[in-house]
Known about the structure:
The structure holds two protein chains of two kinds.
Chain A (H helix, E strand, L loop, with lengths): L19 H4 L6 H5 L2 E2 L2 H5 L11 E3 L3 E3 L2 E2 L12 E4 L4 E4 L5 E4 L6 E2 L6 E4 L3 E3 L12 E3 L2 E9 L5 E9 L6 E4 L7 E11 L6 E9 L2 E9 L4 E6 L8 E6 L8 E14 L15 E4 L3 E3 L11 E10 L6 E7 L2 E10 L5 E8 L3 E8 L7 E8 L3 E5 L2 E6 L11 E3 L11 E9 L5 H8 L1
Chain B lengths: L2 E8 L2 H10 L2 E3 L5 E3 L4 E8 L2 E9 L19 E2 L7 E3 L4 H4 L2
Antiparallel strand pairs in B: 1-5, 1-6, 2-3, 4-5
Amino acid sequence: xxxxxxxxxxxxxxxxxxxxxxxxxxxxxxxxxxxxxxxxxxxxxxxxxxxxxxxxxxxxxxxxxxxxxxxxxxxxxxxxxxxxxxxxxxxxxxxxxxxxxxxxxxxxxxxxxxxxxxxxxxxxxxxxxxxxxxxxxxxxxxxxxxxxxxxxxxxxxxxxxxxxxxxxxxxxxxxxxxxxxxxxxxxxxxxxxxxxxxxxxxxxxxxxxxxxxxxxxxxxxxxxxxxxxxxxxxxxxxxxxxxxxxxxxxxxxxxxxxxxxxxxxxxxxxxxxxxxxxxxxxxxxxxxxxxxxxxxxxxxxxxxxxxxxxxxxxxxxxxxxxxxxxxxxxxxxxxxxxxxxxxxxxxxxxxxxxxxxxxxxxxxxxxxxxxxxxxxxxxxxxxxxxxxxxxxxxxxxxxxxxxxxxxxxxxxxxxxxxxxxxxxxxxxxxxxxxxxxxxx
Amino acid sequence: xxxxxxxxxxxxxxxxxxxxxxxxxxxxxxxxxxxxxxxxxxxxxxxxxxxxxxxxxxxxxxxxxxxxxxxxxxxxxxxxxxxxxxxxxxxxxxxxxxx
Lengths: 440, 99
């Protein structure tokens, strides 16, 4: 089994030692030449190292600049890079684990899940006002004592840090949503840490009506961590809630960056996406729109393998990554996250009328899963995490050349909502052994 | 990418949803209905007798004189305020981008 990461052969310098190519950045590394920003090289370097056949496109969370996320391969034109359209600013968790602001149209490499991944999100609104100022009167301090001090916030900046200590009576730190849920799922989140002393402290976080929240218990230590609550279905939630489980002074917790977001559609479980800071108004972050990647010379016209390693924000709700002909659903190869929980679908739509869909199940769509969809007329297969989970022998013929890679279902709708760690496109089908290696 | 922000007060939630749906939706085999446009529509909910909606318009069609206008059926319900209002889009100013 080849252990040389094959895209490295396109670069002017190679070494037998993993990652050393990046240390020698002044050499002819095409990514360095093309990209204004470059990070996460070590993690990406070890991806896709087991396949002998050459991929025509490899996208890893490494190189980017305004408006563009760079493919690792090809390293010469046509690059097949995707354009990013993103309106307004955003935030991400950077390589140091700190919350960082991000300006318009800069792709985000986010480390929320511990490893760098391209962050592609739907629009969301933080319904909580004064997300960092818990002294504001909109925050109801029922059965908690609020104090403040100067400290380092999750951005790594010196700032006023608020702390809450529990009190015996029922209640907690609560805030009304600017617009309550009416059938929407909700996701609540806040950064928290134990204020002092050794060990950990338990924290209740959740949402519901005022004084009557549904909560989960999270455990925090001395370092900032984002704790979350997601509803399991639709809710009528109107308030955010957080409180230490213990009333002891030693279990006082510091908090920062509260957020409550509603799902766009009713009947869905809640989701927690990247942080949207607020003051006096609720604030909406616009959607990421990755599109117009690929090229007809880089995508197999009638056969190939489409591979992604990705995780979604929610375990339910359709979202997709696709290869398509001219940004149309008429001819496309799609990896769908289904509206059925724990379900991933490989779909070919050919010449408009022929649709072939094969499904596989995973433990959770919110985990990173390695998914390969082999497409060839009469020979389709969906591989997930090392196992062939579904096949089809249905014949098909594309009547237009596949030309575009996009983080949507191929026609500019059902955009990806989650983390993408890698994408690869092969212009020929791979053997079962290769598909197993690719997805293991 | 030309961005504009509009603020609207509809007479009811039903009226607002009708206008939003008019912007374009499709429904897939799994019964999910989703937008087919690139605008960001935020329903802020009821305020008194009105139902408030903010929209980040993305690449609206240009008029003959090069200006942009609200999509058909929206202008009647638009409001013009002197502040950013009760809702904003992260990193974007309503005062700078108001339609």
